[in-house]
Specification:
Mean pLDDT: 90
Shape: globular
Number of strands: 8
Low-confidence stretches: none
Distance between the termini: 14 Å
Structural class: mainly beta
Number of helices: 1
Length: 109
């Protein structure tokens, strides 16, 4: 699903409404999957149309849909901030996800 994603926390601390409003977010393809190595469910944002599946921001682990509105939802979960190992520091993260029309084939956003 092509979306604009805004992260609501930095290192686990909630950002101010002003900081959230100024953040342009990232545009990408939202995907949910279960990591076969850990068994954790993840939601990630990937570069649209890139076959290498380049992840644009750190994934949310064990995501929960905390709210849904007209064309928008809020996800909550955990984010690893010191790498992606089981020993990495893990903090709370929230995303605002706004659904958007996907770009036409070959069109970059």
């Amino acid at each position: 699903m092509y979306s604009q994603i805004k992260r609501l926390r930095r290192s686990g601390k909630r950002l101010s409404d002003d900081d959230i409003g100024r953040d342009p977010g990232v545009l990408g393809e939202l995907r949910s999957f279960r990591d076969p190595a850990t068994g954790l469910t993840r939601v990630g944002v990937f570069e649209w149309g890139n076959p290498t599946m380049k992840q644009l921001i750190p994934a949310i682990l064990n995501p929960v849909v905390a709210g849904v509105g007209s064309g928008v939802m809020r996800l909550e979960g955990l984010e690893r901030i010191d790498g992606d190992t089981e020993y990495a520091q893990t903090v709370m993260q929230e995303w605002i996800v706004r659904w958007m029309d996907r770009p036409k084939t070959g069109e970059a956003r």
